[in-house]
Design a protein that fits this description.
The complex is a heterodimer of chains A (317) and B (693). Chain A has 317 residues and is of the alpha/beta class. Chain A folds into 2 domains: 5-116, no CATH class; 119-303, Rossmann fold. Helix content of chain A is 42%, strand content 12%. Chain A has a 9-stranded mixed β-sheet, sandwiched between helices. The radius of gyration of chain B is 29 Å and the shape is globular. Chain B has 25 helices and 23 strands. In chain B, α1 packs across α3 (57-70), α2 runs parallel beside α3 (57-70) and α13 (356-366) runs antiparallel to α17. The chains are: A alpha/beta (317), B alpha/beta (693). At the A-B interface, α5 and α10 of A face α6 and α7 of B.
Chain lengths: 317, 693
């Protein structure tokens, strides 16, 4: 793909593909160090002292930047390998980078993503569907129903691709020919081993996005980072069932509510978890009737609280 | 280790570097070598060098490596397609004091050692094969290190990058894509001795549009070319043994197939000539020895397939004879061009045979797997959630393992499957469509190349001018020394007795039947249930006996007396450890009389009793419809038993087990097992013809 020099440099600084022994930067660290994307220009050709003077940073940080941008050939090589296998890398500077993630997650947005399939779907209106791995029959029905409702209203479905509610949401989305966006906890090459995932991508029915290394195994830490992206890629995220005060679903939902990562709706009928009511108390929209689809459209107030950060004019942290 | 201060303005630094490297105070460049080094070192360009073999391409990248290293660039990555070439390169580089490491199947250096050396910046030149780029461990461990501190990239035999060319290697496509992703300002050098305009343009496109091409004249002085059409193989064998001894120095005889290499070598050795074989199925030690012997002149004739190919660096080859015609002028020039690089006079003789066209057309048709074959392999991979081996795929797909590997390699390069770990593959997220048009285009081009090769053989003009013109070098009018220029055709003088002997020799080329050591499930067959090593008379469909077998089976329903006599002759010459005391055979439902009749006639000539003791317990599909070993093994498993009415001799001795056709050896293995379990101490398998590849 055609990539600007700045985007490639940003990829060098923040990617999790090439392990050169120097820790890649988070988006937050990047903006803290660089201030503006304009400062990426020319960095690849500077020595350590020039970087230090250019970025007004310590020698230590300059060494880290220098070492990261030096791996250009290694990254180019890896990107070629990934691209021929159907996986692309997008940075915040690429037009195709999911818009919703940028605007909803602000400085919590990852700087690079590995994507496969019709990635533009992540920038269209989506409904996130989340819930626990172990689920009841009722919760399964709710997940399926919400996915169907979303597809009928021409929303996409955003899912974490785990077992339980996630899996059900994806399957229902595919069944109703909706746009399904999958954001797995595992690395993209790991999740691609699943036949259902692979064939959906081959059929052009599933978009995948992952902020992790391509071969990253499942980890709890990654699960939290992943939850954020499900919320960030969705206009509204429906919590089907959550424990209270514990578990990934609860942690993800409360974080989304506190930080304003898009709207959060919570199922309040049969199949709901213990934490569902508590989430409503924390400000989530309650869904009591599956046939009532008013939660799909934003109320005027909620629009004011989203979009906390404008990427075009990055601020110093 | 380097003490050369490089100043861009001073061209003599180049010369100084050359002299330091070679240790020769008078060493000098050709002007075009200097130009090439400046392009790489001063201008950091992407350069394609088209120069004849022996022009001195390696001096360019050795000196460039030296200079670029002293300017702080990383190690040079040299991608070179063949082991023989790699060894030469490494030796030459080390003589010049470049710290060189190579990773290949034979090398001692491990990937982690290489990684350590790169990290410590203790290596100047890394030599790898293109396949290495696809190796997961190498790609994950070494490439990132090279990427951190890049240097010059050299692609030897760069014409292999173009799939329009005859030497296309799928792994080279990976290089093309890799180079495209390189930032500007990293020097890249592609070298080749042979490429026509179309291939060159394709290579240039893959190296980047800014790539510069430097090309020199391809004419090889002192190489006297000639063509002799001898359709019959026996004539050609007799010609070789009669004429090669009169040729000056050592040389190479090229054949199209491994089998031809084997029989030509044997014929020459039997005729008392100093000859050795060379093909891809030999151990690398044997190949290396052969190369070495040819290099130091202790070997007169090396009989080789194209495995001895590009870049084999031996300036003192006196002659190159082709036992069969190659598929294109590019290939022919490449091979015949090995002759006489440092000699005043050398010879290149093309012998054309009647079988050439069939073999070459087969190569063209089999070059790319069919859509159906690829689809079958993909269907297996699509259903898997874990990486699988070739053997696992072979168990569910009725295809030869070699073909499955071929398919996987194509798909791997296309990114549709991915190799993980040791020879395991998994399906990627990339979608796949069969490149129908591309495959057809390439087949069309190959056919026109074949036609051009025929035109070379038929040409009455200067041979050298024909070759160089075909490679887009129009500088030569006439060489003055080829058969057409001198008006002296290649001598076709043949001794009728030798031709007769050669014909007999070809008919006596029996093959060996190696017993299966494992059953269809991969379980070891106990020694006391195995058959012994056996023999077959000929290859199915080959001229001579092969044709007679085909006629006997497909047309006449009875095998000719000549075949029975030949079989008896084969048995008579067989040095059995324990002589057989009887003949038995494989029963067949489809041809119930064919093999019993053959067995009976053979037994009669040999004066041995015929044991009519085996029967089929169930119907089996024809083995020829089973494409790989696992399928064939299971197809006949338990399909044979001893006939209940059989009367066995009191004392069981060694027995010949006869069948008409052998392919996978499973039928003989299974039936032989029944006999062994019954108490026969040895079972010698024997067949008329082999259909195995």
């Amino acid at each position: 793909m055609n990539r600007s020099v700045e985007s490639f440099t940003l990829a060098l600084l923040t990617n999790r593909i090439v392990d050169i022994g120097t820790k890649p930067m988070t988006a937050r660290e990047f903006f803290k160090t660089f201030g503006s994307v304009n400062n990426l220009v020319g960095v690849a050709d500077m020595d350590v002292s020039q970087i230090s003077a250019h970025l007004l940073c310590t020698q230590e940080v300059a060494i880290r930047v220098h070492s990261l941008v030096a791996a250009s050939r290694a990254l180019a090589f890896e990107l070629e390998r990934l691209e021929e296998a159907g996986i692309r890398l997008l940075t915040l500077l690429d037009d195709e980078f999911p818009h919703g993630l940028r605007s909803r997650l602000g400085d919590q947005c990852p700087a690079t993503l590995l994507v496969a399939g019709p990635v533009e779907w992540l920038s269209l209106p989506n409904v996130g569907i989340v819930g626990s791995r172990g689920m009841t029959e009722e919760a399964a029905n709710v997940a399926r129903h919400v996915a169907q409702t979303a597809c009928r209203a021409d929303f996409g479905v955003s899912s974490g691709l785990a077992k339980g509610v996630d899996q059900m949401a994806m399957a229902a989305g595919l069944e109703h020919q909706g746009r399904v966006c999958g954001i797995p906890t595992e690395g993209i090459r790991v999740i691609a081993r699943r036949t259902d995932i692979r064939s959906a991508v081959h059929d052009g029915a599933l978009a995948l996005a992952s902020p992790f290394g391509p071969d990253a195994p499942f980890s709890v830490g990654n699960a939290m980072a992943r939850n954020k992206l499900v919320y960030g890629s969705s206009d509204v995220t429906v919590v089907v069932a959550s424990d209270e005060g514990t578990g990934g679903t609860w942690a993800g939902a409360t974080e989304a509510l506190e930080r304003g990562y898009g709207r959060v709706a919570v199922w309040m009928g049969l199949g709901a978890g213990r934490g569902n009511a508590a989430l409503v108390e924390k400000g989530a929209i309650a869904i009591t009737d599956l046939d009532d689809t008013s939660w799909l459209s934003p109320s005027p107030e909620s629009q004011l609280t989203s979009a906390t950060w404008n990427f075009e004019t990055p601020r110093l942290f | 280790m380097w003490h050369v201060a490089y100043v861009k303005e001073s061209p003599d630094v180049l010369l100084q570097a050359l002299r330091t490297l070679t240790g020769k105070p008078t060493a000098d460049f050709h002007p075009s070598q200097r130009e090439a080094i400046e392009s790489l070192v001063t201008r950091r360009e992407r350069l394609i060098l088209v120069q004849r073999t022996g022009w001195g391409k390696s001096a360019v990248y050795f000196v460039a490596t030296h200079l670029l290293r002293s300017e702080g660039l990383g190690a040079t990555l040299l991608i070179s397609p063949l082991l023989s070439l790699m060894r030469n390169q490494i030796d030459a580089a080390e003589r010049l004091g470049l710290r060189t490491l190579s990773i290949n199947t034979d090398s001692e250096t491990t990937i982690s050692e290489l990684a350590t050396q790169i990290e410590a910046d203790d290596v100047d030149l890394i030599v790898i094969s293109p396949e290495r780029l696809a190796n997961p461990e190498f790609a994950d461990t070494v490439m990132p290190l090279i990427g951190r501190r890049p240097g010059l990239t050299v692609i030897d035999e760069v014409h292999c990058i173009s799939d329009w060319g005859h030497d296309f290697r799928p792994d080279y496509q990976r290089i093309g894509r890799l180079l495209n992703s390189y930032p500007e300002g990293l020097p890249i050098l592609g070298c080749t001795a042979t490429a026509n305009a179309r291939v060159m343009e394709d290579a240039r496109r893959q190296l980047g549009d800014a790539a510069v091409v430097q090309r020199g004249a391809l004419v090889r002085n002192g190489l006297a070319l000639g063509v002799l059409k001898l359709p019959n193989q026996a004539d050609r064998l007799a010609w070789l043994s009669a004429h090669i001894p009169t040729f000056q120095g050592s040389g190479i005889i090229y054949c199209l197939t491994t089998r031809d290499v084997e029989s030509v070598t044997k014929w020459l050795v039997d005729a008392g000539l100093n000859a050795r074989r060379y093909h891809s199925r030999l151990s690398s030690q044997e190949k290396q020895e052969a190369e070495q012997e040819l290099l130091n002149g202790s070997l007169k004739i090396l009989v080789a397939t194209t495995a001895l190919g590009m870049g084999y660096d031996n300036p003192a080859i006196g002659f190159v004879v082709h036992f069969q015609s190659p598929g294109s002028v590019v290939q022919y020039y490449q091979q015949v061009g090995r002759a006489g690089r440092a000699l005043q006079q050398s010879r290149g003789v093309l012998l054309c045979g009647s079988e050439d066209e069939d073999i070459l057309t087969w190569f063209i048709d089999e070059a790319f797997p069919s859509e159906l074959q690829i689809r079958e392999v993909l269907d297996v991979l699509d259903a898997e959630e874990q990486p699988v081996t070739v053997h696992q795929i072979g168990a569910s797909v009725n295809m030869k393992l070699g073909l499955i590997e071929h398919v996987l390699n194509q798909l791997d390069v296309a990114g549709v499957v991915r190799r993980v770990g040791w020879q395991k593959y998994e399906r990627t997220l990339a979608t796949w469509t069969y490149p129908t048009e591309h495959v057809a285009d390439i087949a069309r081009i190959r056919r026109s190349e074949l036609a051009q090769m025929r035109a070379y053989a038929d040409s009455d003009g200067c041979r050298m001018a024909f070759l160089t013109r075909a490679l887009d070098d129009d500088s030569l009018a006439a060489c003055g020394i080829c058969d057409n220029c001198t008006g002296t055709p290649v001598s076709r003088e043949l001794d009728p007795d030798e031709v007769q002997q050669a014909s007999q020799f070809l008919n006596e080329q029996y093959g060996e039947i190696k017993p299966q050591a494992r059953d269809a499930h991969g379980k070891r067959i106990p020694e006391n249930e195995r058959i012994a090593e056996g023999r077959y008379l000929c290859r199915w469909g080959d001229a001579g006996y092969g044709e007679l077998v085909r006629r006997g089976k497909q047309t006449d329903g009875r095998f000719a007396d000549e075949l029975v006599a030949a079989l008896a002759h084969l048995v008579a010459r067989w040095n059995f450890e324990l002589a057989p005391v009887g003949v038995t055979y494989i029963p067949s439902d489809r041809h119930p009389l064919l093999v019993p009749d053959l067995a009976e006639r053979l037994a009669r000539i040999l004066g041995l009793p015929l044991f009519d003791i085996l029967e089929k317990t169930r119907r089996v599909e024809p083995q020829k419809t089973m494409a790989n070993s696992a399928h064939q093994g299971r197809n006949v498993e338990g399909a044979f038993a001893l006939r209940s009415s059989s009367v066995l001799p009191v004392e069981l001795g060694p027995v010949i087990l006869l069948d008409d056709i052998v392919d996978s050896r499973w039928t003989l293995t299974e039936a032989g097992r029944v006999l062994r379990l019954e108490g026969f101490p040895t079972v010698y398998p024997l067949a008329l013809a082999s259909t195995a590849q």
